[in-house]
Design brief:
The chain has 3 helices and 7 strands; from the N terminus they run H-E-E-E-E-E-E-E-H-H. It is of the alpha+beta class and 169 residues long. The radius of gyration is 16 Å and the shape is globular. The protein starts with 24 loop residues before the first helix and ends with a helix. Bound molecules: nickel (II) ion. Nickel (II) ion binds next to helix 2. Nickel (II) ion (NI) binds next to helix 2.
Length: 169
């Protein structure tokens, strides 16, 4: 089931999420809904905070559902290592219409649990490493604009505030 995606400015998006404790039916439904919502958008990643659930869960699929083995579900993830830097344009489903160049790690190793609570590790580089960092930020209540500085950030925030005032956000 597709759930509504919260937009920048909604409190739940800017609040750090708590670790998952129960790997129950409710969690499975949340994950299925997150995958449906990500594919419907369409997007390559979605964090639980974006659908208003304050739990440390994200889904990523660089193939957006085209490759059945492309789906990654991460519960309670932590970075084991991050190396290098990359500078690429990125967007976010919670910031529709906005893009910015964001500094991210070039490579990373992420450790967490799968949807059933079994430990897993994922090595990533390039776009996947970027997606991991982007989704990890969501779990800490941070969006890509929060990684920008000065005028780049101000321009986006002011444009969003204007859209909020006119009820278009
Ligand atoms: Ni995002």
């Amino acid at each position: 089931m597709v759930r509504p995606i919260l937009k920048y400015g909604t409190r739940a998006l800017h609040t750090p999420a708590a670790p998952v404790v129960d790997f129950d039916e409710r969690l499975q439904r949340l994950i299925e809904d997150m995958v449906d919502t990500m594919y419907a958008a369409p997007g390559i990643g979605l964090a639980a905070t974006q659908v208003g659930v304050p739990l440390r869960v994200f889904v990523v699929d660089l193939s957006v559902g085209r490759d059945p083995s492309g789906l990654i579900v991460m519960v309670n993830p932590e970075f084991v290592s991050r190396e290098g830097t990359q500078l690429q344009e990125e967007g976010c489903l919670s910031l529709p219409g906005f893009n910015a160049t964001v500094l991210r790690p070039a490579r990373s190793l992420l450790r967490g649990l799968n949807r059933y609570g079994k430990p897993q590790e994922r090595e990533a580089s390039g776009l996947l490493a970027r997606a991991f960092q982007h989704e990890m930020d969501h779990l800490d209540g941070r969006l890509f604009v929060d990684r920008l500085r000065g005028i780049k950030r101000d321009v986006i925030v002011r444009r969003i505030q204007k859209l909020q005032r006119t009820g278009e956000w």
